[in-house]
Specification:
Layout (H helix, E strand, L loop, with lengths): L2 E2 L41 E2 L1 H11 L3 H8 E5 L6 E5 L11 E2 L2 E2 L7 H5 L2 E6 L4 E6 L13 H7 L2 H23 L5 H17 L7 H18 L15
InterPro entries: Puta_zinc/iron-chelating_dom
Organism: Candidatus Faecivivens stercoravium
Protein name: YkgJ family cysteine cluster protein
């Protein structure tokens, strides 16, 4: 099944598509009007590790500090996988980065924000990305804009390889968790290690992807060192 990065509780499984996938040349007569409507009253904006890294670079703060200040941290109810959700302001219910009706981090906005009003799915293991039109409650109509142009102008095409890799690793780690039965203490340790490796352990002055790949390799070694057997094969090597 295709997976995506938008709105449901577990990272990598947040939003199912509606309608048929768009082709690169499909008309997309939408342009943001800057009204801020899509920035208000939402509690479903999950962040990937790359989203958090981009915000950290923009704010010149360590990723974990950004998460503490602007996100809710939790584990997915179906997978036990650690997740970050953008925390709305208590006074307005709006995005914490909505300032005077404008996005204060527009050049580093999360994928879900850049996609609006699209949904995105990533089919694995192929890594095929599809886009779907969702109902837009705001915006302006424009002529002669295609999906390909929208994705390029929004910075989505440029980051697509990283988003595919994030989906692959999330799926791998959720599969590892599902195939084993760690003790509560082990699970707490595992979630903390996953959270640190995938979301926080980045130098914001260095490129994201090489650090991410290094973190994933280190995380695999840590998980293997726990020697937690698979549910169906107790004596099998437990590398993810």
């Amino acid at each position: 099944m295709p997976i995506s990065h938008l709105t449901k509780p577990d990272p990598g499984r947040e939003n199912l598509e509606t309608g048929s996938p768009l082709s690169p040349e499909s008309p997309l007569p939408f342009r943001c009007a800057g009204c801020g409507s899509c920035c208000r009253g939402r509690r479903d904006l999950l962040l990937s590790g790359y989203d958090l890294y981009r915000l950290a670079v923009r704010l010149d703060l360590p990723p974990e500090v950004v998460a503490e200040g602007f996100c809710d941290r939790y584990t997915g109810p179906d997978t036990g996988f650690p997740a970050l959700r953008l925390r709305p302001r208590k006074d307005t219910g709006g995005c914490p980065f909505l300032v005077n009706g404008r996005c204060a981090v527009h050049d580093a906005r999360p994928l879900a924000c850049a996609l609006y009003p699209l949904g995105q799915t990533i089919a694995l293991p192929e890594g095929t990305v599809s886009y779907f039109m969702q109902a837009a409650q705001c915006g302006e109509r424009v002529s002669e804009q295609t999906l390909a142009r929208f994705l390029t102008d929004s910075g989505i095409t440029e980051r697509e390889p990283i988003d595919i890799r994030w989906a692959e690793v999330c799926t791998e780690m959720m599969g590892w968790l599902a195939s084993r039965a760690p003790s509560p203490l082990q699970l707490k340790f595992i979630c903390r290690q996953m959270e640190k490796s995938l979301y926080f352990a980045y130098d914001r002055t260095a490129p994201f992807l090489p650090q991410f790949e290094g973190n994933v390799k280190a995380l695999r070694r840590k998980l293997a060192s726990l020697q937690i057997p698979r549910k169906d094969e107790p004596d099998e090597n437990c590398n993810p």
